[in-house]
Structures are given as C-alpha cells and as structure tokens.
C-alpha cells in the first residue's frame, strides 16, 4: 500500500499588514498546479516572471505580480515550491489566500511547517533550523552575525567534527572487541581510542567554559537598575530609552513593578530593567515590588546601584550582597551639588545627572564596554541554546567516563562513546529528536 503524499501547504511568508510587497509561499506536490490554474504558464525554474494572478474558478484577475517556480529538489523545503510576489495590500493578500483554499489538496501551513519540511528533506539540520529562527528574531547586529553563522552551519560543523572523532574512537574500541582473543591488538586499539578522546575532551571543556556568552548575546545582556526610592532610576531608564517608558514622580515608591526597555549598544542587545526602590519602611505593595526587584537583580548580568548625590547611599542592602561582584555604583543628581561637581567617589563609581544629561553618555559607553567584554567576539563559534549546552555537557561527561573507566570493561567503555556520539547527534538531529521538534518549529511564524 503506497503512502499518501503530504498535503501542499501555503502561507503568507512576509510580514502581515499593509506593505509594498507581500510574498505567498506554496510547497508540495500541488505547487505546480497553482501556477497552472492561477498564473499559467509555468516559468523557467528560479526565474522571476510577471504574471496576472487569477482566481482558479472563473479566472478573475486578483492582482498582477511576480511568480517564481522552484521544482523539487532545488528549493528551500526540497519539495516543489512556488512564490507569488503580490502587492502588499490586505485585500490583495486575503483574496489570493482565499483563492488558494479552493484548489483541492491545499491547506494553510502550520507555524514552522516550511522549515520542518526542509529539515525532514535534509536541507537543514536541527542546529541550522534553530539558527534560522534566531536570525528571524535578531534585533541587533551582533545577534544577526551569531544567528547567521549558526544558520549556515558553523555550530553544526563543530559538533559533527566532534561526533566523527567519537565514532572513530568507537571503531577502535569495537575493533578491540572483535580481536579480544589477541591481547596486543586490543590494547593498541583501546590506546588509540583514548588518545583521540584525550585530545577532544579539553576542546569540549573550553567550549563549555564560555561564560554563557552566546546565550547572553541571543537573549540580551540584562542590566538591573536598583537603588533607594527617588534616586532617579525611572528617569535614567527614560534617558536610556529616549522615551517616557516609566512614570517619574517626586513621590517615593512610584515604581511598584519591573519595567524593561531594550537597547542596541553598538550591535549588542541590552535589556535594562527599572525596579522598585529599596527601603525599610514600606507597605505590602512596595514590599512585593522589592521582592521582584531582588529577583531581577539576582538574574541580571550587571546591576546598577543608583543613589542620590545629595545624600549618597553607597552601601547596598544586605539582600543584594550576592550580586556585589557584578554591581556598578552610579551617583545621580550631581547637578544639585554645590559647584556642580561630584564629591570624592570610589574609583569605579559613575557620576551623572539625568536631568542635565551630564555623564549619561559616559554611562552608556561603560555599559557597552562591560557588555562587550562579557559577550566576547560575536564571530566566535559559541553555544547559543540551553538545549545544546545540556547535550554537550552530557557528551563531555560520557567522554570523561570513558577516559576514567576501567579499560578491561571494554563493553562499558564502548557504551560511554555511544552515549557521547548520541548526545552530539541530537544537537543536529542526526538521531531521534522527536521530543523537541514541536517546540523548536513552533517558534517560527506561519510562513516559515
């Protein structure tokens, strides 16, 4: 009994809403029929041609646009693919999508279904798919470079190279098992395997010992604004965001919840969070605000302790002692000091006036330098996903077990190597990853 072909799917592949151009993508065995019914004749493969886009029932012209024909297997999904480049008005797009539903065997695509079909056709591996999702979500230049490197196989090449080394070592171990009656051969092959893994483990450890740079670049470098009430935290947030993101008032305790703004500092994503002020006397709502502030500070990559120059409080509360090693002291309202100059400050304290703007640019530069030092060079091949880190750690642990395990338990040592190879293979999808596919492809928009 022959299996039924996958249904042909379609979706708007460009952003929804009014635009100059909208792209509708169709993928599957019925894609060519869309051209035959709605934009005949089929153009030459991969050649953009102007066509009237017609309704398949009655031939009413819906739009005049550009069509592209990508016959299998030379397409994004590996299937027959058609792209209709339309005028981007909502009515035009809706009319074309409605017309496609008339054709038998076509249905609207699920989120990420085009990318999933590309993965299943071997056009992309799983790490490249995740890089593609990050590329679509990239907001800064640093994120774009990192995501593009992953989407084009930089991480996949690294992990597949490691996996190949593990498989080579496993072949030596299994050769020793085949010649278990000849002790000399078994010892030599096991020694060769340990030599390979002995070189690989330091490289894996170095890769893991990266300070989570790739994950920070992907998610954003988090900065928490903390300090006593009325120190100017909300005003500083607004100055950094260059808009009124937070309410500013002379009344103490105005900020009750955490407010975030996203900044692009020379290509690096920085997320700044305004938090409730820390003080002893507070009501129930303020205490909840301080509890949330503490949680944000503990999760932050950098904490700014902002204090008022007219009554500086440079000693942080005991609750923040755990984040002292990643805290930058900031003295605000220096414009209110006699003569407009700041008092003698600790070497690493930054003076500024949010009101006059004095020192704000210096603080932004300081934030950019700190974030850059923490993230490192964006061009390096680094871990970007928690999923990858867990699997690399699992592979490393299995490799260490192989090196430290008894050499006479050859079957167990072979199993150590199989587990390591399996963990690395799960990153790129070379082995069963069904349990994570829905989660990964669900990140995509419907047209991808």
UniProtKB/TrEMBL annotation:
It comes from Hyphomicrobium nitrativorans NL23. Keywords: Cytoplasm, GTP-binding, Hydrolase, Magnesium, Metal-binding, Nucleotide-binding, Potassium, tRNA processing. This is tRNA modification GTPase MnmE. Pfam families: MMR_HSR1, MnmE_helical, TrmE_N. Exhibits a very high intrinsic GTPase hydrolysis rate. Involved in the addition of a carboxymethylaminomethyl (cmnm) group at the wobble position (U34) of certain tRNAs, forming tRNA-cmnm(5)s(2)U34. HAMAP family: GTPase_MnmE. The gene is mnmE. The lineage of its organism: Bacteria, Pseudomonadati, Pseudomonadota, Alphaproteobacteria, Hyphomicrobiales. One of its GO terms (biological process) is tRNA wobble uridine modification. Coiled coil: none annotated.
């Amino acid at each position: 009994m022959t299996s039924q072909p996958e249904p042909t799917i379609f979706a708007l592949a460009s952003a929804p809403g009014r635009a100059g151009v909208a792209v509708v993508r169709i993928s599957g065995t019925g894609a060519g029929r869309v051209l035959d019914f709605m934009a005949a004749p089929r153009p030459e493969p991969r050649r953009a041609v102007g066509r009237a886009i017609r309704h398949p029932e009655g031939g009413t012209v819906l739009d005049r646009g550009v069509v592209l024909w990508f016959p299998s297997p030379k397409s994004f999904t590996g299937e027959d693919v058609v792209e209709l480049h339309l005028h981007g008005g909502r009515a035009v797009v809706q009319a074309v999508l409605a017309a496609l539903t008339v054709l038998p065997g076509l249905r609207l695509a699920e989120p990420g279904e085009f990318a999933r079909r590309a993965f299943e056709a071997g056009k992309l591996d799983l790490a490249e798919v995740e890089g593609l999702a990050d590329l679509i979500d990239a907001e800064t230049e640093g994120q774009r470079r990192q995501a593009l490197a992953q989407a084009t196989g930089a991480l996949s090449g690294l992990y597949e190279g490691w996996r190949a080394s593990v498989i080579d070592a496993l072949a030596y171990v299994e050769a020793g098992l085949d010649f278990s009656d000849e002790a000399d051969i078994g010892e030599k092959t096991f020694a060769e395997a340990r030599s390979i893994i002995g070189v690989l483990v330091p490289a894996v450890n170095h890769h893991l010992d990266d300070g989570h740079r790739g994950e920070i670049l992907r998610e954003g470098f988090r900065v928490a604004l903390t300090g006593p009430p009325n120190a100017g935290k909300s005003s500083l947030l607004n100055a950094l965001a260059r808009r009124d993101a937070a309410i500013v008032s002379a009344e103490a305790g105005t900020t009750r919840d955490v407010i975030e703004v996203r900044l692009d500092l020379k290509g690096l994503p920085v997320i700044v969070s305004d938090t409730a002020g820390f003080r002893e006397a507070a009501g129930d709502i303020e205490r909840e605000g301080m509890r949330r502030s503490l949680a944000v500070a503990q999760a932050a990559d950098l904490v700014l302790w902002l204090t008022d120059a007219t009554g500086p409080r440079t000693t942080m509360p005991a609750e923040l002692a755990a984040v002292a090693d990643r805290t930058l002291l900031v003295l605000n309202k220096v414009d209110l000091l006699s003569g407009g100059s700041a008092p003698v400050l600790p070497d690493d304290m930054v003076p500024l006036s949010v009101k006059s703007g004095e020192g704000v640019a210096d603080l932004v530069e300081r934030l950019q330098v700190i974030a850059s030092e923490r993230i490192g060079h964006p061009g390096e091949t680094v871990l970007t996903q928690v999923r990858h880190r867990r699997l690399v750690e699992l592979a490393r642990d299995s490799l260490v077990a192989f090196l430290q395990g008894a050499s006479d338990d050859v079957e167990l040592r072979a199993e150590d190597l199989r587990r390591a190879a399996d963990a690395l293979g799960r990153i790129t999808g070379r082995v069963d990853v069904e349990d994570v596919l829905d989660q990964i492809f669900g990140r995509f928009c419907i047209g991808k």
